[in-house]
Design a protein that fits this description.
The protein is α/β, with parallel strands linked by helices. Among the domains are: 165 residues, 3-Layer(aba) Sandwich (Rossmann fold); 61 residues, Alpha-Beta Plaits (2-Layer Sandwich). Helices cover 32% and strands 28% of the residues. The chain contains eleven helices and 14 strands. It has a seven-stranded mixed beta sheet, with helices on both faces. A four-stranded antiparallel beta sheet has the order 11-12-10-13, covered by helices on one side. A hairpin with a 2-residue loop joins strand 8 and strand 9. The longest helix has 18 residues. Pfam families: ABC_tran (PF00005).
Length: 346
């Protein structure tokens, strides 16, 4: 059932959010035992450094960054699990820290490495437990149970003990449980972690469907950028605890616009050598190369290819989003981003 999306109140707002952690430092030397015990050194770590973000209802946003960038910390703050050290946060107009119970009835959360399912009971028992504890009305529960059973193909596992499920089955069951109370916003932290190709495809198709058909707002984190590109329309990249990019995947490619791929159909299975291209892979007589137009203009590359007797056909393709983001991570590793990049500024 399509949810009526009201745009007056955004799905979430982060306004200049900071999050600090304290970390005790110890030398590990036996001679420093007393010093470590009575006068340990403390280091202040900054997980989030002035993050500001606004997501409208019905959006599908990928939230990404290298390890330690602050992705999971942000999700936990939005869910009320953690409180920010400074700044303002609201989800559906509510303060996650102060209005956590009211908020939990309107949002859904799935952490890829954790489960809400009862380990030694059938999946349906966990679902019925949630119905009772959360006070989900019969009409809502029955409608959503039927919907998730169909959309996630759960009919064969509803009466299976959770401990006997494969990882892909368990993730589908967790997603189904998350949606039983009809959440308006869902947060997913690494939902495709460890899933095989088929399970990933099912997961991605399902998330896109509930976003399109129900108007559910989806915020998803993942290290798999190809998965994120297949799911979301917008990507927010964190670096050093700051928002370094906010826009579409297509706009992200323009940030590293010099990277590209060329697919060459040759007369032979042996890939021809080209000075301006870096060979990547072959499939039969189709060979793929990488190029950097900042080093060699594309016109010059095409001229070289057209002059080769080995080349039968040339196709310019997009660089994989993984490569684009990896290049950005490398450029951000040594220094913080100079400015907040939005699609509007590109």
């Amino acid at each position: 059932m399509k949810r009526t999306v009201q745009t007056d109140t955004p799905a979430l707002v982060l306004d200049n959010i900071y999050k600090y952690y304290s970390q005790w430092q110890r030398t590990g030397k036996l001679s420093d035992t007393l010093k470590n015990l009575f006068k340990p050194q403390k280091r202040k770590l900054t997980a989030l450094n002035g993050v500001s973000l606004r997501v409208e209802k019905g959006d599908f946003v990928a939230y990404a960054g290298a390890n330690g960038a602050g992705k999971s910390t942000t999700i936990k703050i939005l869910c009320g699990i953690l409180q920010p050290s400074d700044g303002e946060v609201s989800v559906l107009g509510l303060n996650p820290a102060k209005d956590r119970i009211a908020l939990m009835r309107r949002i859904g959360i799935v952490f890829g490495q954790r489960t809400e399912l009862w380990w030694d009971h059938p999946v349906i028992t966990s679902y019925e437990w949630k119905k009772v504890v959360w006070g989900i009305p019969d009409e809502v529960y029955n409608r959503n149970l039927q919907a998730v059973t169909e959309l996630l193909d759960l009919s064969d596992i509803l009466h299976t003990f959770s401990r006997e499920l494969s990882l892909g089955q368990r993730m589908r069951a967790d997603l189904g449980m998350m949606l039983l109370h009809d959440p308006e916003v869902v947060f997913l932290d690494e939902p495709t972690l460890g899933l095989d190709v088929l399970a990933k495809q099912q997961m991605i198709a399902f998330l896109r469907r509930i976003n399109a058909e129900r108007g559910t707002t989806v915020i998803v984190t993942s290290h798999d950028m190809d998965d994120l590109e297949a799911m979301a329309r917008r990507i927010v990249l964190l670096s050093h605890g700051k928002v370094a990019f906010d826009g579409s995947f297509e706009a992200l490619r323009t940030v590293q616009g010099s990277l590209g791929r060329i697919r060459v159909t040759a007369r032979s299975d042996m890939p021809p050598n080209f000075l301006s291209l870096a060979f990547l892979s072959s499939q039969g007589n189709v060979h793929e190369y990488a190029y950097d137009s900042d080093v060699t203009p594309i016109q010059e590359i095409l001229t070289q290819l057209s002059g080769s007797e080995e080349v039968q056909n040339v196709e310019i393709i997009k660089a994989p989003i993984e490569d684009v983001i990896a290049s950005l991570y490398k450029s951000w590793k040594q220094q913080e981003p100079a400015q907040f990049i939005t699609q509007k500024s590109l």
